[in-house]
Every structure is written in structure tokens, then in C-alpha cells.
Specification:
This protein is α+β, with helices and mostly antiparallel strands. It contains nine helices and 20 strands.
Amino acid sequence: MISGDVVIVGGGIVGMATAYYLAKGGVPSIVIERDAIGSHASGFAYGGLSPLGGFGIPGPLAEIAQDGMRLHRELAQSLVEETGMDVDFRVRPSLALALTEADVHRLQAALPWQQRQPGYAVRWLDAAEARRVEPRISEETIGAVLIDGTADVEPYRLVLALTKAAEEMGATVRHGRVTGLRRDGGRVTGVMLERGEVACSAVVLGLGPWSGETSSWIDTPIEVRPLKGQILRLQAPGPPVACSVGWGHNYATTKTDGLLWAGTTKEEAGFDEESTPEARDEIGAALVRMLPAMADAQVVHQTACLRPLASDGLLLLGRVPALEHVYMATGAARKGIVYGPPMGRAIADLILTGSTKIALDAFNPGRFVK
């Protein structure tokens, strides 16, 4: 167990969840963030908590997705008690539309596994049944999968609440740009900044889409790149869309701010974080295909963010090879809000006890060494 001097590089949901769970275990940390807490993907995410689908589910990411839902339920209560902040966690159903026969095949292929997962009610609906859930869905709808037990959360409030709780338990947030690690053989002794240095006995690297920068710090290739995603927030006609309506990688739901949130794009755009009219039109077209009545919805706000995507699509989570007490937590891609708390919990457990409750073998940060 590390007794102190833990530095966490990166103040997104993973970094702040790590700081929170370390503090709960009696170890305060120093979080170094170059911009502002939650100012990138963690603060602009959709916040959907859908652990029964996506890349690697079923598969290596299924366990951590389920752990994520469990921790989100716990945090929704504990953070209010600890900070007085409501993170807007709400359980609501998900309705995944099939508009083509290919959609039908894809959705129905996943049903047997989904229906075996405890805590959820999953069923196939025909078009008429789906329309009773949300009357405004497209006339193209052939059928849909309804999942009861999914949820969403307001990601920025969640990151701020984790930060406040961690700080009240002794964590510290500093601003600065990290440029490397000070090492003594295989041991890290400090984190180097553009201005100054912070001594430490352990370091957690949670740099999100910028994680590739750490390759030279740890002498290990880190194959993580940014995946750009954009979201529209709209003033929509009619009553709220109470469930999360999805089609492929597109989704829409009315959030607690009263706006309809719709997204998202999957763009290989380097480190460009600017919103674009092309993305606005792409999201709008998908929204109207799912929910034609939203043709008159007015865009109130458009956001863009960069999500960390590993070259094989899996997380990088655990100890960095050949270095003592150096840990990496990144690669959550489009499910950063689902995976953030269990990633932070896993790293905190490694630091505090040397082991984790969830299997990390598939997420070895050293797996890209040729």
C-alpha cells in the first residue's frame, strides 16, 4: 500500500474518481490538470449509462460496464450526502430502433445475452408496441429492443461532485502541464511540469486522448488516439422524450435541463475540438430519421469533445510494465461516463491493496509492445 504522495495526471472523470476512491481509503492525492476539471470529454458527454451494449459487450468490457452501473447507483446517493450535490442520476428505459432488416438482425442477435443479465428487463417489441413507448418514432420502424434498467447522469456535475468530495477528504487539485516523469531506475520519484516538479511515490496517468504523450515517459508504446464526438442540445416541440431513443450509434433523450440531447458523431479529426456545421447536419438528419416530429426542433447549443480510443478498442487499465507504482487509466472511448468510476476504483484498489475485484488482464497497458 502507498501511504501518500500519489499524483494523478488528468482531471477528467477517471482521474477524479481515482482521487475520490483513494481518499475514501485514507490516501489523499494531488491531481494535476492542465485546463479545468471536467473541461473536455467528461464535461461534455451525453451521460447515458447503458451497460448492455457497445464494443466489447458481451466480452472483455462487460464486467466493468456492470460494475460501472453499480457504482453509479452508489455515487448518486453518497455524493449527495458528502457534498450536497445532486448528479441528476435517473433510471429510464432505452429504446433501440430497428429501421432496416440489418438492424433487426443485429439487435436480435444480442438479445439472448442481454436477457440473462440481472437487474434489467429486456424484450423485443414490434412496431406497434414500440410506438406505445414513444409515439413519435419513425414510420420506418420495424421493431425495437426495450431495456428497462438503464439510466443517465449529468457528467459535469458528477465530476465536480467527485472533486468536491475528494478535496474535502484531503485531495488537492493543481493546474499545470505535465511534461514527463522523474525516475530513479524503475522507480518514479516525481512528476515534471512546465514550471516545477511534484515529488511522488506513485503516479496515475489518466490523460484521456492525450495518453499517447506518455509513451516516451514510460518507455512503452501507448496506442491511444482521439475520437471526436459532437452533440446537439435542442429546444424540441411536444412533450419530453422520456426514454433514450437510439438507432445505431445515434441517440436522443430529454435531459433534466429540459432540452433534447442528440448525438453523436464518430470523427477521426486529430485534436480538433471545434464544433462543425457538418456534424450538426449529420446529427440532425439521424434525429429526424428516428423522430420525424423533431424536424422543427431548434438547436440551442452544440458541443464537441475528444474521447480516448485505443487501437484495439479496449481500456488501458492497470500497472505500467517495468515501473514501480505507475498506473494507467484511459481508453474508455464512447463509454467514459459508464467506465469512469470503476476505472478509478480499480486503480485505487491497486494502490491501496495491490489487487482488484475485477479482471484487468485484457487491459494491460503494456500490450502494444512489439
